[in-house]
Amino acid sequence: MTLRHVVTWKLGGASREARVGQAAEIIAVLSPLAETVPSVRALEVHRNELFDGENWDVTLIADFDDAEGLAAYQTHPEHLAAGTVIKAHSIGRVATDFTV
After folding, report:
1. The domain at 3-99 falls in which architecture?
2. Where exactly are the structural domains of the chain?
3. What pLDDT is recorded for position 1?
4. What distances in angstroms separate CA 7 from CA 3, 15, 78, 96, one per listed residue?
């Protein structure tokens, strides 16, 4: 069993360029978690490329063995630090978790 965690953020930058910069910061703080958080089995972070202003701006896709692995990720100090960067830039968040 693999638990997939998908999160998408809408960023608050006033221009496309500002949102691209914010997305780059978020990608920079989330990507290393694939190597530093033991419960992460796979992790990708992507910036939206099409339909700027309509689509949301950044998406995280992360896989874990189970809900306990996701909980360990969510409370890991490096994830919490990344969260402060994300919260500084985001104006909306949606998430879903499902078994693949």
Report:
1. 2-Layer Sandwich (3.30)
2. 3-99
3. 86
4. 13, 22, 17, 7
